[in-house]
Design a protein that fits this description.
There is one protein chain. By secondary structure, the chain is mainly alpha-helical. It has a domain of about 100 residues: Tetratricopeptide repeat domain (Serine Threonine Protein Phosphatase 5, Tetratricopeptide repeat), CATH 1.25.40. Helix content is about 75%, strand content about 0%.
């Protein structure tokens, strides 16, 4: 088959190359609409028709179809098929010297690693990430550098999850070493995320002072950036530093950081989307720190600020912080003997997130209902308390989530206990 052959498309005569491009464009458009099954079918049509052609005109089109098919399969959680698709792309095009195909094979290898990790094949995923970082170590093309940075970052995440913290640190340091002077937003973000995770790994190793130095450096690097995405990294860094200070019982310093962070980043207007979740988390963490110090009234006020500032947000990450704040506010109000107010907080959680499917929100709702039962028993409203715990058992009794199973067990125990 050669590029100057022609075919009929919608009654018009077009070249085979144009026909292939039309099918590819159709698939890409379906991906943009998140119609991944239909997109896979479109890419398969292209591959069935042109996938075995030796004509150079089709090489990039076939590679693009394979890459987009693989990413679509990953979106559908059909990760075995995704790995097979990426392998097909790599087997055919990994030795190519064409820049576009090199970029595609680097990115495909990263995506293959992500699919392998989703299948639980973590060591294979790490090997895929390592292959990208070594093979393209000297690459200067921005798209390939981005793939290398993503591969290294993902490797660090997987190594950390395996408790191979020293190896993870080495990988994060490699990201910073290679790309600290990068100018693209994607490379700067990769460096920021790597520094953030480096600080977390140092904390897990008990190297608190080193962790805080990293967080301070990251905050200085990103707090003045024009992009909200990078300033969000500064917020997270400062919040993490405050958490570490709290763990060291340097509570005045921790609370001072929270206050300064909130003053500088929370603002009074419409906060940029990227900043909302980390700012909400920092505000919640301030409440948690105050609660841990037994300063319940101040903790209630801190949680109320989270709820007031972000209660109307639809962002799942922000909603989680609001839900956490409501549950903790209810608990602290109970400790202050303000039981009626605590019930209001718990009811708000159920009203807001009772229909949520996200695991974190489901846990908060279950905890709110369980805590509501505890509050009702304290108030002498035994039948209502038992009804609340029955609700936990009824709605969450079949859940495999450990946190929900624990709440179900506690609810069953509470039901059989005498008031």
């Amino acid at each position: 088959m050669v590029a100057n052959e022609h075919t009929k498309t919608n009654g018009a005569t077009v070249s085979l190359e144009e026909a292939a491009q039309t099918i590819l464009n159709e698939g890409v458009a379906l991906v943009a609409l998140e119609r991944y099954d239909s997109a896979v079918a479109a890419f398969d049509r292209l591959l069935e028709r042109f996938g075995f052609s030796d004509d150079p005109s089709f090489r990039q089109l076939v590679a693009a179809a394979l890459f987009n098919k693989g990413t679509s399969l990953s979106k559908l959680r059909r990760n075995e098929e995704a790995v097979q698709t990426f392998d097909r792309l790599l087997a055919r095009f990994s030795s190519s010297s064409e820049p576009v195909l090199q970029e595609m094979t680097a990115n495909a290898t990263v995506k293959k690693g992500i699919a392998l990790a989703a299948l639980g094949r973590v060591e294979d995923a790490i090997a895929a990430y390592d292959e990208v970082s070594k093979r393209f170590a000297e690459a200067t093309e921005p798209a390939i550098q981005q793939s290398v940075a993503e591969a290294l970052f993902s490797m660090g995440v997987r190594l950390g999850a395996l408790d191979r913290h020293e190896e993870a640190l080495a990988v994060y340091n490699e990201v910073v070493r290679r790309f600290a002077s990068g100018t693209s937003l994607m490379l700067r973000e990769a460096v920021a995320r790597s520094m953030l995770n480096k600080g977390a790994q140092l904390g897990m190793l008990g190297r608190e002072d080193e962790a805080m130095v990293v967080y301070e450096e990251l905050a200085r690097r990103c707090e003045g950036e024009p992009e909200a995405l990078l300033r969000a990294s500064a917020v997270s860094a400062l919040g993490n530093k405050a958490i570490r200070l709290g763990a060291l019982n340097r509570n005045d310093e921790a609370l001072a950081i929270y206050d300064e962070l909130i003053r500088r980043f929370a603002g009074s207007g419409d906060l940029e989307l990227e900043l909302r979740a980390p700012v909400a988390k920092a505000m919640f963490d301030k409440g948690a720190r105050l609660g841990a110090l037994g300063r319940s009234a101040e903790a209630v006020d801190a949680y109320a600020q989270v709820i007031t500032r972000f209660g109307g947000s639809d962002d799942p990450a922000v909603r989680e912080q609001v839900s956490r704040a409501l549950v903790n506010k209810g608990a602290r109000l109970g400790m202050l003997g303000r039981w009626d107010e605590s019930l209001v907080a718990y009811d708000q959680v159920v009203e807001r997130d009772g229909g949520a499917t996200a695991p974190a929100l489901r846990e908060r709702v279950a905890r709110a209902i369980y805590n509501r039962g505890t509050a009702l028993r304290k108030m002498g409203r035994e039948s209502e308390a038992i009804a609340a715990w029955d609700e936990v058992v009824k709605h969450y009794g079949d859940s495999p989530m450990p946190a929900l199973r624990d709440l179900v067990a506690k609810s069953r125990d509470a039901i059989v206990k005498k008031s």
